[in-house]
Write a structure and sequence with these properties.
1 helix, single chain, mainly alpha
């Protein structure tokens, strides 16, 4: 479960980076 949560946060960060560009 922890791995899934970390992946979710990582995807969120990547998404934020994409939108901020």
């Amino acid at each position: 479960m922890l791995h899934y949560h970390a992946n979710y946060l990582k995807n969120k960060v990547i998404s934020v980076h994409f939108h901020s560009k």
